[in-house]
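[recover] target loaded
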């Protein structure tokens, strides 16, 4: 998606260690018009695919998923929580994931009443690096008996291999921007065809 690639080039910050900061428009300050264009693009790419729920993970995926849901007939958005709280009641699906950016492990929790065997799920998230967060969401879907119809990613850091591993397992992954390489010193970024 050229619009997203151009925005990454203009406002993204490349840091050492394979970190791409896009907090000016994607995961701290949110550009809702861009989110809307992303939702329309995913709806086009997944046209004809049965989707009755969108699943994401807190916090950065929530805004993207909610705006995108409007392009899928206003389907419900379920987000996995990363911490147990008194607001989580009833039976739950739970697993744990390792966060590349936070460099620690988190629980991933979804209430059983929000995800089940009749659900056709589209997973949406802001980033795909090594795929650990998505592995957790896929495990939750498996526990629920839900069918994963596809995975939509805003930015895939293809050089970290998570997307390739998911595709090799048979998942349809549609990334709107695929980063092939980044150089923090030169401030350059190269995109692969998405």
């Amino acid at each position: 998606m050229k619009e997203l690639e151009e925005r990454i080039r203009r406002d993204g910050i490349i840091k050492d260690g394979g970190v791409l900061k896009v907090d000016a428009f994607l995961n701290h300050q949110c550009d809702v018009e861009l989110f809307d264009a992303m939702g329309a693009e995913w709806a086009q790419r997944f046209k004809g695919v049965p989707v009755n729920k969108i699943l994401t993970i807190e916090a950065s995926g929530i805004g993207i998923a909610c705006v995108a849901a409007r392009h899928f007939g206003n389907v419900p958005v379920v987000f996995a929580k990363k911490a147990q709280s008194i607001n989580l009641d009833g039976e739950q699906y739970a697993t744990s994931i390792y966060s590349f950016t936070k460099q620690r492990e988190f629980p991933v929790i979804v209430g059983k009443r929000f995800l089940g065997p009749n659900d056709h799920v589209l997973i949406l998230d802001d980033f795909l690096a090594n795929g650990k967060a998505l592995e957790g969401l896929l495990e939750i879907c498996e526990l629920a008996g839900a069918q994963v119809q596809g995975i939509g990613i805003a930015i895939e850091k293809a050089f970290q291999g998570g997307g390739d591993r998911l595709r090799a397992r048979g998942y349809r992954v549609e990334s709107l921007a695929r980063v092939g390489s980044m150089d923090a010193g030169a401030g350059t970024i190269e995109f692969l065809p998405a």
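[recover] notes: The helical segments are 2-11, 32-45, 60-69, 132-144, 162-168.
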